[in-house]
Each structure stands twice: as structure tokens, then as C-alpha cells.
């Protein structure tokens, strides 16, 4: 059976954990700690990891409403990609082009750092640094790729870091339909997201970090966290709640929650990969305006996703949106359009998750030493490696360490809050509709929809 009718409405990564997720005990009563971290995803766990490794005497608590990895950290596409959603120019405006380049290369290093730490700690998350292949499948996409390479050369990036491929070379990486050119970006590793988050949680817990799951945080106060299980008093509180920040008192408009959905195929024969490529497990996409992303998993599935579910009025987070069947059908159809060899492959899983977007689409982290408050997140869907750099940097800021990371230009980056409804809904819905139409127009006419893209950026408030 093709399509998604027979697919389980479950997250592939979480579904195949062995043993399955076992919930930790909730907070039961008031507590006093040195550092309280709200959010048991990558950001919070990486911050806890670097804090406890550098200062084992610290009393650290991680608090999560469900379980570690319940949110984006356990549901994402498994791209540990060495880039930030905020543009090179946005960070250069905060500092300089040289500093923006330094930030970019710190992101490259974070991809390697994930590999180093997981190897050292015995966390088998199926880490494979195969880079990213992005193919251009129409004339406007090919023109954008050529312009992008000219731009990154001016910015100082090397051929070893990112390079343009002709059609034949691109097809050797990913034998998609209608390939005209490609870009190979070296700083990406494919991972199993749930294995990484489970391994991090177990590692920090074994090192002495207390993890309280099934505990809802109502409000973050002055050096305090108010939860359903009691009040936690702390010298430092770190907010690492990503899209779920909207549920905290006073923070509803801090980040925009947007859904991204995924499907996964059954394990495929090696003969299929002989035809479609993906040797070395590079992550893959094409250069349409609406984001798509895929990877070859360690057990030879294709896990593939895109942003398809319409934004919910009032920044709604609703479990039903994770299983929006029409969106999953479109994602599966997009995959088969790219790779017709997968037309008969069974889709075994379909799921979704929510990510957080700041108003200027520029991720950053802040630490106020006087208030004892750190914030991080809002990675616009590129958070696997970014969370490592953010968590590592947050730990150094809390410990008062002056490192190359604590002076990077995304430290201190903030954004104004999102508009109230209905303006937020109108802007986001309109932007998405325009981008979909722009992609359709470019495929039909082989002409760039530049005005549509500019209008979309205006409506969404892009960087």
C-alpha cells in the first residue's frame, strides 16, 4: 500500500527506542538549587552537561512538563547542521563580517563537538558526518545556488566548507529528478534525535543532575521557578522551552510556534540507494522556498519532512496538528516527486512537532547575571547543532568564563515580541501561501518569483 494510510501516527525516533521511554518522577515539594533549567530538550541538557562537567559541585535541576526529548529534540529531522537560521548579514550588522564568519565557524565546530562528546560518553546516536546535499531542480533554484556561492566566497567561506556542484556531480550525491546543479555543505551530521536526547539525559543524570519530568512550569520568577509540584529557588534560572515558551506566564508572544511534519519509509534495500545515492548518509533537500529536509537513517529508511500544517490562530499547539493527514500526503508526494524510486516504498510512520521562531528570525541567547536569568532557543528549525553551541556558551556565561564563544555575535541577540492576533495569523498564513505559490510558479515557468519572496519576507517579518 502506498500513501500514508497504513503509517503509524507515532514519532519514528521515539517509537523505536529500546527500552521505550520511562518517565522520571515529578517534582514533589519545594527545592533549592544552584541552577534550575526549564526544558529537557537539547538546549537545556547541553547547558546541564557543560555545567556539571566543568563544575561537578553544582546543584542542577532540569524540569520538563512531559519527558526529556518530548518536544522538538525528539521529533526533528536529525540534521545536526552547522548553520544558524539568522543570516550572515544579520549577525554582521550586530558586530562585523569577520565576527559573523567566526560565529559560522563556531557552528561548524559544534557539529564536530556533538561527535566528540557522544563518542566520549558512549552515546550511540547514529552520528554520521556526511554533509548536506541541496539540489536545484529548476532554473530559478540553480540561479540562486550560483549567486549563493558567489556570496559565500566574498564572505570568506572556502571550497572545503561549501561548494557548487554541476548536475552530474550533484546526481552522484542525490539522484533526484530534474537536477540542474547542487550545493554541498560539509558541516552537517545525520543523527537519531531521540537517541541523542536520551543519551544526554542519562549522562547528566549519572553525573549528578536532578531531572524532574511530568512537572509543569507555570511561571519563571525572580530566581525562582513556580511549578505544579512546588517552587524551585535557584541562583540561576535558564529558560530553554523553545516553542513551548508560549505557555509560560508573560511569554506568550516571545516565540512563534510553527509545526513541521515528517514521514518515514520502511527500511529500503541497498539496491534502492544504488539508484538514488545518499552514500555516506548526507542530509538532503532542494532549494524551493518552502523548506523540505531528509536523511537516510542508519537502518536504511528515508526520514523526510517539511513545513506543511497551517499556523494555528492564537499560537495554538494542538496534538491533532501533528498528524494532519493532508500535509503528510503532500510530504510523501514531494518525496516521490524528487525520488520516484520510492513510489512503492511503504510509509511506516508519520508525525510532527513544533519549533520556535523569534520575531526577527535571528536566533540568539541572553544571560543577565544580575537577575540570574538565561534564555536560549528560537532556532527556526535548525536547532540540533545550534543547541549544542548555545548550551555550551550558556554554561560558560553562568560560570563567568571568558571564552571565544561568550563573545560571539549571537550572544545578547534579542527580538521584539510577536504581534497580537489577528495580525500574527494573517501575516504568517499569507507568507506561507505566497511561498507555496512562488514555488509552483517557478516550476511552471522556470522564472524566479523574486517579488513574491520579498513580499513573503515583509509579511512574516524576516531578518
Beta-strand percentage range: 15-25%
Task: Pick out the low-confidence regions.
Answer: none
The number of helical elements comes to 12
How many strands, what sense, and barrel or not for the largest sheet? 8 strands, mixed
Total number of strands = 18
Average pLDDT over all residues:
95
Question: Structural class of the helix and strand makeup?
Answer: alpha/beta
The succession of helices and strands, N to C, reads HEHEEHHEHEHEEHEEEEEHEEEHEEEHHH
Shape: globular
Radius of gyration: 21 Å
Q: Helix proportion of residues, in percent?
A: 25-40%
Distance between the termini: 43 Å
Which key phrases capture this entry?
single chain, 463 residues, globular, 4-stranded mixed β-sheet
Describe the protein in words.
By secondary structure, this protein is α/β, with parallel strands linked by helices. 34% of the residues lie in helices and 22% in strands. The chain has twelve helices and 18 strands. It has helices spanning 12-15, 42-54, 88-94, 97-121, 139-155, 167-173, 193-206, 270-276, 325-338, 384-398, 423-445, 450-460; strands spanning 31-38, 60-63, 79-81, 132-136, 162-166, 181-185, 188-190, 210-212, 217-221, 224-227, 230-239, 256-265, 283-286, 292-296, 302-306, 347-357, 364-368, 373-377. The strands form four sheets. Strands 1, 2, 8, 9, 10, 11, 17 and 18 form an eight-stranded mixed beta sheet that branches. It has a four-stranded mixed beta sheet with strand order 5-6-4-13. Strands 14-15-12-16 form a four-stranded antiparallel beta sheet, covered by helices on one side. The longest helix is centred in the N-terminal third of the chain and has 25 residues, at 97-121. The termini are far apart. The mean pLDDT is 95.
Amino acid at each position: 500500500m502506498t500513501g500514508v494510510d497504513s503509517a503509524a501516527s507515532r514519532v519514528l525516533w521515539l517509537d523505536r527506542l529500546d527500552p521505550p521511554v520511562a518517565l522520571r518522577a515529578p517534582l514533589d515539594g519545594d527545592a533549592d538549587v544552584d541552577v534550575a533549567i526549564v526544558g529537557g530538550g537539547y538546549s537545556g541538557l547541553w547547558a546541564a552537561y557543560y555545567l556539571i562537567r566543568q563544575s561537578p559541585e553544582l546543584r542542577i535541576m532540569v524540569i520538563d512538563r512531559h519527558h526529556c526529548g518530548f518536544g522538538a529534540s525528539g521529533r526533528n529531522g536529525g540534521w545536526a547542521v552547522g548553520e544558524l537560521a539568522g543570516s550572515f548579514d544579520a549577525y554582521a550588522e550586530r558586530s562585523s563580517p569577520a565576527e559573523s564568519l567566526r560565529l559560522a565557524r563556531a557552528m561548524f565546530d559544534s557539529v564536530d563537538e556533538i561527535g566528540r562528546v557522544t563518542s566520549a560518553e558512549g552515546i550511540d546516536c547514529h552520528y554520521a558526518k556526511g554533509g548536506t546535499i541541496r539540489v536545484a531542480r529548476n532554473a530559478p533554484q540553480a540561479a540562486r545556488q550560483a549567486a549563493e556561492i558567489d556570496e559565500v566566497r566574498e564572505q570568506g567561506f572556502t571550497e572545503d566548507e561549501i561548494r557548487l556542484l554541476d548536475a552530474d556531480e550533484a546526481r552522484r550525491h542525490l539522484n533526484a529528478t530534474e537536477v540542474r546543479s547542487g550545493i554541498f555543505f560539509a558541516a552537517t551530521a545525520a543523527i537519531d534525535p531521540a537517541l541523542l536526547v536520551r543519551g544526554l539525559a542519562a549522562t547528566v543524570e549519572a553525573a549528578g543532575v536532578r531531572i524532574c519530568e511530568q512537572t509543569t512550569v507555570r511561571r519563571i520568577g525572580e530566581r525562582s521557578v513556580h511549578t505544579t509540584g512546588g517552587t524551585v529557588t535557584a541562583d540561576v534560572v535558564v529558560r530553554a522551552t523553545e516553542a513551548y515558551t508560549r505557555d509560560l506566564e508573560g511569554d506568550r508572544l516571545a516565540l512563534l510556534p510553527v509545526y513541521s511534519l515528517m514521514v518515514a519509509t520502511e527500511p529500503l534495500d541497498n539496491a534502492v540507494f544504488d539508484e538514488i545515492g545518499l552514500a555516506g548518509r548526507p542530509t538532503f533537500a532542494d532549494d524551493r522556498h518552502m523548506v523540505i529536509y531528509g536523511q537516510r537513517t542508519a537502518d536504511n529508511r528515508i526520514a523526510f519532512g517539511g513545513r506543511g500544517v497551517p499556523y494555528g490562530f492564537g499560537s495554538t499547539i494542538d496534538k491533532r496538528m501533528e498528524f494532519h493527514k493532508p500535509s503528510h500526503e503532500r510530504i510523501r508526494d514531494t518525496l516521490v516527486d524528487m525520488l520516484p524510486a520510492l513510489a512503492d516504498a511503504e510509509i511506516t510512520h508519520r508525525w510532527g512537532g513544533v519549533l520556535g521562531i523569534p520575531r526577527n528570525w535571528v536566533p540568539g541567547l541572553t544571560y543577565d547575571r544580575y537577575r540570574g536569568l538565561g534564555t536560549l532557543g528560537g532556532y527556526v528549525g535548525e536547532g540540533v547543532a545550534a543547541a549544542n553551541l548555545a548550551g555550551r556558551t550558556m554554561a560558560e556565561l553562568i560560570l563567568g568564563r571568558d571564552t571565544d564563544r561568550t563573545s560571539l555575535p549571537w550572544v545578547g541577540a534579542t527580538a521584539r515580541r510577536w504581534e497580537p492576533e489577528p495580525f500574527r495569523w494573517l501575516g504568517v498564513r499569507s507568507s506561507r501561501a505566497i511561498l507555496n505559490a512562488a514555488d509552483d510558479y517557478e516550476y511552471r515557468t522556470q522564472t524566479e518569483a523574486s517579488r513574491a519572496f520579498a513580499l513573503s519576507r515583509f509579511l512574516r517579518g524576516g531578518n
